[in-house]
Design goal:
This protein is α+β, with helices and mostly antiparallel strands. It contains 11 helices and 14 strands. One of its GO terms (biological process) is DNA transposition.
Amino acid sequence: MIRPVEVADIFRAYGPLYRNNHKLPTRHLRAMRAIEICRTAELGGHKYRCDTCGSFTIFYHSCRNRHCPKCQSLDKERWIDARKKEVLPIHYFHVVFTIPEDIRPIALRNQEVSYGILFKSVAQTLKELCKDPKHLGAQIGLISVLHTWSQTLMNQPHVHCIVTGGGLSLDGERWISSKPKFFIHVKVLSQVFRGKFLDYLKQAYEAGKLSFTGKIGELKDKKNFKELLSKLYGQSWHVYCKPPFRAAQKVVEYLNRYSHRVAISNERIVRFGQGRVTIRYRDYADGDKTKEMVLDALEFIRRFLLHILPDQFVKIRYYGILSTRNRSTKLLKCKELFGVPLTETADDQLSWQELFERLTGIDPTLCPHCKKGKLILFEVLGPERSPPL
């Protein structure tokens, strides 16, 4: 059986050439290297022996880099378990905020500042509008997740928000539900979001926090920057609110779908050979059809690296009643109002073996050779060692 193509295969084959041709920031080099050696002998691992048939099995260590397509499943599963404890028996909305194309080159060259502004603008837009009695008059909760890519790996920063369909009253004593099928008109969300983002962007510019290099060098000139702002104020910014969902399982499914994604999964790589990479993507502009695109291997690497986030940048954030400081107070009050049990589960203490089995249905302690015996640790393998079986 032919092994499916992985991002790591492309990096191993064309990464050296790409690195020779481009001066890359340290975080890009580190991510590429991590993906290349993930689950290989270079990272070491554990060697197990079956207590029944005596055969050996090796599990190599994962790189744990957050941009690696192979390393998100277990972390995501632990994260989802934690979120399950916070789900209320209400309807939720999925709202997506996307920045316009004219801002994207600025965001790409100023990721930490621009993505921070994006998060702040989105959160303030939702919280302030929902506090307004004209819309809801309550304190909502939301989880925001940053994605920076389009289906074809181009630069398209946007934030997915899971928003409570209602909130805690401003006096903190009762739950106020939103209309079950309607949140806030997207035109209102768009206008407020646009104003906040551009105001913060202007502040960052005036404080000298933005860098303008390459093709956007002309924006160093204040006149040119003001002209860009005027143009952006005149545009409609894309905000999309998806139909609400009520069941707790649906909330978890949505979180599971968006939380720990990377720019492209290995499953979307169709073919790789002769310097060409074929990827599968969904064309939203053409009826959501599934299509294929062929990219030069070096162009594939370039596009993938567009989405390596700054070190320590937090891409999942919590606001309102779901923020860290409010979980033990306001969220707890909401649970009491709904009669939700307050007992904690121990799912976050599950071992990787237990999580793996729950995720795949495969018991990793079962011998893959005889299908009967149990794997017993035989040896811990140090890095860069590939012993014979």
